[in-house]
Amino acid sequence: MQLTGKNLIGNKLSGINPQSFKGHGGHSGIAFHEATVGEVDQAVAIAHKAFGSYKNTSGVERAIFLERIAQLIDESKGELVAIAMTESRLPEGRLMGETGRTTGQLKLFASLLREGSWVNAMIDPAIPDRQPLPKPDVRQMQRPLGPVAVFGASNFPFAFSTAGGDTASALAAGCPVVCKAHPGHPATSELVASLIVQAANDTGMPEGVFCHLQGEGYEASVHLVSHPAIKAVGFTGSLGGGRALFNAAAKRNEPIPVYAEMGSVNPVFVLPEILEKEATALGQKLAGSNLMGAGQFCTNPGVIVAVKSKAQEQFTEAFKTALEAASADNMLTDKVFSGYCSNLGKMASLRGVTQLVGNLTAKEGVAAIPHMFQVEASAFINNPDLQEEVFGPSSLHVVADNAAQMKQVSDILHGQLTASVWGTEKDMKGHSELIGTLESKAGRVIFNAPPTGVEVTYAMVHGGPYPATTDSRSTSVGTNAIYRFTRAVCYQGYHQALLPEALQDANPLSITRKVNGQFTDKAL
Amino acid sequence: MQLTGKNLIGNKLSGINPQSFKGHGGHSGIAFHEATVGEVDQAVAIAHKAFGSYKNTSGVERAIFLERIAQLIDESKGELVAIAMTESRLPEGRLMGETGRTTGQLKLFASLLREGSWVNAMIDPAIPDRQPLPKPDVRQMQRPLGPVAVFGASNFPFAFSTAGGDTASALAAGCPVVCKAHPGHPATSELVASLIVQAANDTGMPEGVFCHLQGEGYEASVHLVSHPAIKAVGFTGSLGGGRALFNAAAKRNEPIPVYAEMGSVNPVFVLPEILEKEATALGQKLAGSNLMGAGQFCTNPGVIVAVKSKAQEQFTEAFKTALEAASADNMLTDKVFSGYCSNLGKMASLRGVTQLVGNLTAKEGVAAIPHMFQVEASAFINNPDLQEEVFGPSSLHVVADNAAQMKQVSDILHGQLTASVWGTEKDMKGHSELIGTLESKAGRVIFNAPPTGVEVTYAMVHGGPYPATTDSRSTSVGTNAIYRFTRAVCYQGYHQALLPEALQDANPLSITRKVNGQFTDKAL
Q1: Above 80 in pLDDT, residue A364?
Q2: Of B126, B132, B286, B395, which shows the fewest CB atoms inside 10 Å?
Q3: Do A375 and A441 reside in the same domain of the chain?
Q4: Are residues B158 and B81 in the same domain?
């Protein structure tokens, strides 16, 4: 595959901006042209045009498109992973796994489309002789919103970027995508983008169903989310970046859904009886989760809470020992690394915080030295700054005096992607109020497993209350992510032939529907 | 029932503000105390506290609560309608029907709760021996967001007010409600509110599950939607009022869903063949829809589009005749009436507009004289001001040169609650692109029926793209309205006994669930 450093507007390469930036890694000869606001306009215009026909493609047609993207990525994964390694500094095994996850997501959405029931078809047949007025025939199903802006994430060059979850779910829903690549991996993004466009052409999708823009600056991104023809936004990244896009979108005349997944400290509560039984093993296990991928997962456990005890001290010691034994791991970008360093400094300076592991002053290259801090629960409860995410291999251990104070910690937590509880059955029964509170704070509550590792499955929720995301009603992982980009449309009194197939009496797609509120696979 | 003019904060009456306002009608002796920001805080605090236990009530418990509200409204409907007549100037028959609709909504949500499958339970069982990593047990269901702010609407003193759709769906979802009454019918609202609180006490619901605030000013409303413990907002009213609340909520640190249903002109396209066949009857029928309730329905047909022809002229003539024969009907409030008059003036002043019916200068009391305007499609296409809603018995008739220009009219339409098409089967087949465009503009597309009259049913969508609403993914009518106030929570690796009943293996609620993506009623 040939790198060009240009933006992709439909089938055309475009790089009119003399302003450009260079990535780092094995393509350092290439200058990536910042997308201009004019190019953003062109991309959105062709995406808007594509929507006119793309919204009317069948689920099977879109499934074939998604499967073709997966196939092309699979065929090129050696080349893609090689360049992603140089751009992201992530190891080959991890990136190979991530391409598998990415193609797996695409294929999962394809299977959802082939099955077809995801449209939530509902039919309430007419009752012409109802008194005092006839009851009309009313049907509804999910329909695509329109062109979607997707922003690539730094920490998943494949699974949350160009052909990642938001792109897969938007394309599955019937929405064209204008993707803004993360400047941390522009080359990987360009190559993946060219495969998506090739797949669109191979499978007869309209030109403009996918566009790809490069840039380090904010101007084009803000212009993109402000464009009247953009009908939703997907973003994964920092609280600062996500909030800036959310605020820009909030200035639009027409409000649109903005799904920004941002910071989360993914609190972990370790309960007394399990601590007594497995202090050392648990300390090692959670340290492993904290260190994974240089701590650069959205679900990295950043706050760990336990009640003061001998066992808790053993747990802390085991966690500490595991961190001390770990080597420094390269971070994704210089910016991510400098952010890590400055957040460590902030954390160390906060009242009541003790540093147990790490050397704040050691800065070689972009290798993140693991850090570990401790604070008493009373201090944590009174200082919201202690809840700020340190993106990287760092954790804050909160020590409570007793179960009641541990419950208070849960009460003041901000919104989270995940919250975890480790406990025996007795522990769990004795802390049901704590568990109930966590349910109101997080998108996913986990028993006895590390938060890292997000299963791509039907029932997954990767989302949660603010600041974890800007819209807690949604998930970015799992099949329900398709509903980010759809709305229900109601069809009243339609002729059969003009109804979408999903709503026709004969049920030609053989999908599960709700008729008068009851699920059925049958024709009417 | 005894009117007090006070706010209801849990079980306590509160009227500490010396500032008060008087409604009009049969209770003119009563001063209604404006809720202070302190009273708003108290109401939200008790609602937040109530959420702690209310979120854990069973569906059946909440069904009993909703049914009790319906029963109490039904028992008092004579008294309620009598006072609502004096406050809203709406006729007895209409208000009696509206109480039936209100109790019907409450009972529909109760039946949804009793059936139980609405929680969208999904289960992906563990695969402990999966390679390379075990698959965890992942389950999800819908859970309530927290306390909700509901704003009563002027035009439906019952069905979209204190015990209206938003209150019913929020209470059904498990969310306490802080309701701000519409100042157009404070007495009706207070009486209904007292019945809701009585029903909560009768059925063992926590104090604060429903609070009720009065006020004419904006300050308390803005304070309410800005309160950190409020997790969603429901509003039905004007574009100005809805947008002001939306903007206030947009300034929050934590973004929350704001469901503001605002203006809609509910465009109606009348196609050529049906015009040829039924011009006069159609003109009469649509005029009837336009006149209904003094034109004060959200779905009132405000823009009517047809291609120039003899039949179209006949249609226009029949519409005109029906309007001229109609008597002036009282509007809801002085403010609504003065808004109608000033919007008529604006409409008449716009370039290309011809007034066919009405006398702009006639202003007696609050009786709205029907109006009818006409404009050429070319002018309509070029002036977005012509799309502004005139709330009341007024319509703008857009005359297109040909089918292509009629399609252009559909292309430039703003978002709508409804869009309607009248046509024969041949008409419909010949205008499939027009119909496809309308689908992207409206929450509901209607064939051959007036837009007024919104069926409360499973498949109804009462919503649509901006400016019809601020969140097109939602409906305010029908059972799906419950999802305004919920989000999915994911439970990973839970012990059976700690899982919500809806997610337990044994399926003790006998609901329909998705297991590995497949619908089933069975236990695991």
Answers
A1: no
A2: B132
A3: yes
A4: yes
Same domain, A246 and A292: no
Residues from chain A that touch B442, judged by Cβ atoms under 8 A, are 489
Asked if B150 and B175 sit in the same domain, the reply is yes
- How far does B424 lie from chain A, in Å, by closest CA? 10
Contact B428 A56 (CB under 8 A): no
Tell me if B423 is assigned to some domain. yes
A155-188: pLDDT as tens digits:
999 999 999 999 999 999 999 999 999 999 999 9
Q: Which string of b and e fits A420-441 if b means at least 16 CB within 10 Å?
A: bbbbbeebbeebeebbbbbbbb
What is the domain extent for residue B205?
42-119+146-262+474-483
B253 found inside a domain: yes
Instruction: Convert B79-94 to b/e letters by CB count within 10 Å (16 or more is b).
Output: ebbebbbbbbbbeeee
Residues of B forming the active site: 261, 298
Q: Please tell me the predicted confidence (pLDDT) of residue A453.
A: 86
Rounded CA-CA distance A457/B123 in Å is: 10
Which A positions 455-474 lie with beta carbon below 8 A of chain B? Answer: 455, 457-461, 463, 465-467, 470-473
* Shared domain check, A280 and A157: no
Number of CB atoms found within 10 A of residue A521's CB:
11
The reply to whether A252 and A292 lie within a common domain is no
pLDDT at B252: 95
- Chain B interface mutation, best of A473, A485, A524, highest count of B Cβ atoms under 10 Å: A473
pLDDT tens, residue by residue, A190-234: 999 999 999 999 999 999 999 999 999 899 999 999 999 999 999
Q: Are residues A51 and A165 in the same domain?
A: yes
Cα A506 to Cα A511: distance, rounded to the nearest angstrom: 11
A254 and A287 both lie in a single domain:
no
CB contact under 8 A, A489 and B246: no
CB A523 within 8 A of CB A506: yes
pLDDT grade, residue A321 (50/70/90)? very high
pLDDT in tens, B405-434: 999 999 999 999 999 999 999 999 999 999
Q: Nearest residue on chain A to B433, judged by CA atoms?
A: A52
Q: What is the ipTM of this complex?
A: 0.95
Per the rule left: phi > 0, alpha: psi between -120 and 50, beta: everything else, A491 is beta
Count of structural domains within chain B: 2
Work out the percent of chain A whose per-residue pLDDT is above 90. 94
Q: Is A169 within the bounds of a domain?
A: yes
B129 touching chain A per CB within 8 A: no
Q: What confidence score (pLDDT) does residue B477 get?
A: 95
